[in-house]
Amino acid sequence: MVVFATKSLAPAWCRANAKRKQRVLWSFGLSSIVTLSNKGNIMASELQLEPASPETKRYSRQKIAIALTGTILGLVVLAIMAFGVGPVLGRYSSEWFDGNDWLRLFVSAAALGLVMEVISLPLSFYSGYVLEHRYHLSNQTLTAGCGNGSRAMPSAACSA
Question: Which of 42, 51, 84, 113 gives 20 to 30 Å between its CA and that of 159?
């Protein structure tokens, strides 16, 4: 059995000699997080984590719920765009651009991207700004978030 600090420290060349790997790793003073068997398969973790607080669990559940809502909403909008708006946009764009397929493709992609950004913007704002401030994970102001391209604020929100 061989113990590694992370999965990335377990390259394929190390799987040949378990005893040698263990000596090398202990000489670097690495603590055990992932345990590999002699065959190189990942076994049970030896890391004991402290239980998460109810506030942490609530935050995680809300983030997951928002991510799932965004995914489902995105799929619904994509289906509506594909089966409802797509054929109409295709008819109009073929009239407007007189058979230029590349320009029609660009217009369709731009329309889809714009609609998806507008649909996902409220969820992104809530998840990245409101929720983080509610749980005191960020103290950045709204204008500062727009100023430096923060991960919490999509670029479209700052340009509006």
Answer: 84
Question: Which residue is it, tokens 């390259």?
Answer: 11
* Cβ–Cβ under 8 Å, residues 118 and 155: no
Task: Provide the β-strand partners of residue 4.
Answer: 34
CB 82 within 8 A of CB 116: no
Phi, psi angles (nearest 5°) of residue 115: -65, -45
98-146 pLDDT, tens digit per residue, is 878 888 889 889 999 999 999 999 999 999 889 999 998 988 888 876 6
Instruction: Identify the pLDDT of residue 160.
Output: 39
pTM, entire model: 0.58
Burial of 137 (0-12, 13-18, 19+ CB in 10 A): exposed
Structural tokens at position 105: 């493709």
* Contact between 145 and 151 (Cβ < 8 Å): no
Classify residue 52 as left (phi > 0), alpha (psi -120 to 50) or beta: beta
- At 36 the three-state DSSP class reads strand
